[in-house]
């Protein structure tokens, strides 16, 4: 990586694979259009049709923000990437599919923390899932007053 300017060179991008998530995290590039709406609709129908309880049938599948699960061990099974509409940050956010290892429930977690997303993306590239992790806050804030999030092994 280019050390002096903290900007990626074309060689760095080639090493990183030049994929859309890498470019969104490192260059602020826009993500491509999200998944096909029909695929999403089929996925929701499949989740409903395979529910094991009446409560499961009525579960809307809402996602939990990463901030609400700090320190909770999660078995990450997969990660997907969606386009973010937030100003001032990466143009992408992670959708983590997994299991809460404290209570055994299935969870969908959203995270826009750049460090966590970079870790998830690289772990995905390495074929490391399923993997037990927890999302943690750094011990102290940055000079700008922001406290970064990180993945840690659970």
Structure overview:
- With 154 residues, the protein is α+β, with helices and mostly antiparallel strands.
- The protein has a domain at 62-153.
- Helix content is 29%, strand content 25%.
- It contains five helices and six strands.
- It has helices at residues 10-16, 20-27, 37-49, 54-58, 114-125; strands spanning 64-65, 74-83, 92-100, 106-111, 131-137, 149-153.
- The protein has a six-stranded mixed β-sheet.
- A hairpin with an 8-residue loop joins strand 2 and strand 3.
- The longest helix is centred in the N-terminal third of the chain and has 13 residues, at 37-49.
- The two termini are 29 Å apart.
What is the gist of this entry?
A hairpin with a 5-residue loop joins strand 3 and strand 4.
Shape: globular
> Could you name the ranges where pLDDT drops below 50 across 5 or more consecutive residues?
1-6
Kindly name the structural category.
Answer: alpha+beta
Distance between the termini: 29 Å
Helicity level: 25-40%
Average predicted local confidence, pLDDT: 83
Please tally the helical runs, counting DSSP H or I stretches of 4 or more residues.
5
Strand tally = 6
Strand order of the largest sheet: 1-4-3-2-5-6
What fraction strand?
A: 25-35%
Order of helices and strands: HHHHEEEEHEE
Radius of gyration: 17 Å
Largest sheet: 6 strands, mixed
């Amino acid at each position: 990586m280019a050390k002096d300017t903290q900007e990626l060179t074309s060689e760095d991008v080639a090493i990183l694979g030049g994929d859309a998530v890498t470019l969104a995290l490192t260059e602020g590039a826009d993500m491509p259009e999200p998944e096909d709406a029909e695929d999403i609709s089929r996925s929701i129908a499949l989740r409903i049709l395979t529910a094991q309880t009446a409560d499961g049938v009525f579960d809307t599948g809402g996602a939990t923000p990463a901030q609400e699960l700090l320190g909770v061990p999660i078995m990450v099974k997969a990660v997907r990437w969606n386009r973010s509409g937030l100003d001032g940050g990466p143009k992408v956010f992670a959708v983590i599919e997994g299991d809460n290892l404290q209570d055994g429930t299935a969870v969908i977690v959203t995270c826009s923390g750049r460090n966590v997303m970079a870790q998830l993306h690289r772990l995905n590239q390495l074929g490391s899932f399923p993997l037990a992790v927890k999302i943690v806050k750094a011990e102290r804030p940055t000079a700008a007053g922001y406290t970064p999030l990180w993945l840690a092994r659970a």
